[in-house]
Amino acid sequence: MTELVHTARELRAAVEGRSGATGVVMTMGALHEGHATLIRTARGRVGEGTVVVTVFVNPLQFGPNEDFDRYPRTLDADLKVAEQAGADVVFAPSVEEVYPGGQPQVRVGAGPMGERYEGASRPGHFDGMLTVVAKLLHLTRPDVAFYGQKDAQQLALIRRMATDLNFPVEIVGVPTVREPDGLALSSRNRYLSEGERRTALALSRALFAGRDAAGQGPEAVRAAAREVLDGAEGVGVDYLALVDPRDFSEASADHTGPAVLAVAARVGATRLIDNLPLDFGGTR
Q1: How far apart are CA 71 and CA 191, in angstroms?
Q2: What are residue 38's phi and psi, to 5 degrees?
Q3: Exposed (0-12), middle (13-18) or buried (19+): which is 174, by Cβ within 10 Å?
Q4: For labelling, which of 85, 99, 178, 213 has a CA lying 20 to 30 Å from the CA of 277?
Q5: pLDDT tens string 138-155
Q6: Domain contains 251
Q7: Is the pLDDT of residue 178 over 60?
Q8: Which residues on neighbouring strands pair with residue 250, listed in sequence order?
Q9: pLDDT grade, residue 282 (50/70/90)?
Q10: Is residue 158's pLDDT more than 90?
Q11: pLDDT tens sequence across 64-83
Q12: Side-by-side strand order, sheet with 170-174
């Protein structure tokens, strides 16, 4: 049975004495099949070891006009999802537990990589995200940490932080889980009306169109994806970008190797993000 704990002391007691590797899946709750896939991946990786799931809506990564207060908090349902997926411990701390001195004076800065795309649209978001990830890595002390590739820029920044600050943890990216019609699973999908959900499919259609044009090079990918978005009514595009996953700089016209095609847009009042990994071959 999955154990629910709320404090760092309870967490230490819950993990102490367990054998094998520890894997952590960090979430803001409102768990869905995408999160369950992360937990199952962690379970498969650590075997008889320990899988810890964190549930914490982090105030530092919400801007003043964002949805912190209305972000769904569904701990009872989250506990069931985590248990069914194979979690041993769910750590659901309060804001006071994570930030005992109030707003932290010392934070992790995301640097130039955190100022692009999502960072430009949501100033300070990635500083807040990295600060809480660093804290949760210290608290859970995992051997392996699992994050969804749907938040591609977040994953890239966490990997960079782990490298730059010598965190003794392996960072694993897990592929995006999609509905049968292509819509990427997200806790924010519940804000969409039926009509808005149909409209939101333009994001994944644009990404798939870009992927299908990858054999013709980066410019063709951008053009194919843009054509879909330009023809979609009710989609307010924030950005469409083809980037180098190492630093999220824009991929050049002659780019070779891995790339990420990423999109962010508003459908109604809901802001959605999605991406697809691509590869243009060649070596770097």
Answers
A1: 10
A2: -60, -45
A3: buried
A4: 85
A5: 999 999 999 999 999 999
A6: yes
A7: yes
A8: 243
A9: low
A10: yes
A11: 777 788 788 999 999 999 99
A12: 3-5, 89-91, 50-55, 22-27, 144-148, 170-174
User: Do 76 and 30 belong to one domain?
Assistant: yes
Residue 225, domain member (yes or no): yes
pLDDT at 17 over 90: no
Both 105 and 238 in one domain: the answer is no
pTM of the model: 0.93
Q: Which of 275, 272, 254 is nearest to 208 (CA)?
A: 275
| 107 and 204 share one domain | no
Over residues 116-121, the mean pLDDT reads 94
Q: What is the CATH number of the domain that holds 246?
A: 3.30.1300.10
Range of the domain at 199: 187-275
Domain count, the chain: 2
Catalytic site positions = 35
Residues 214 and 258 both lie in one domain: yes
Residues present in the chain in total: 284
CA distance 111 to 99: 22
Is 36 contained in some domain? yes
d(CA 150, CA 8): 29
Which burial class, exposed, middle or buried, applies to 237 when counting CB atoms under 10 A from its CB (0-12, 13-18, 19+)? middle
Cβ 260 vs Cβ 277: under 8 Å: yes
Which amino acid, 265? A
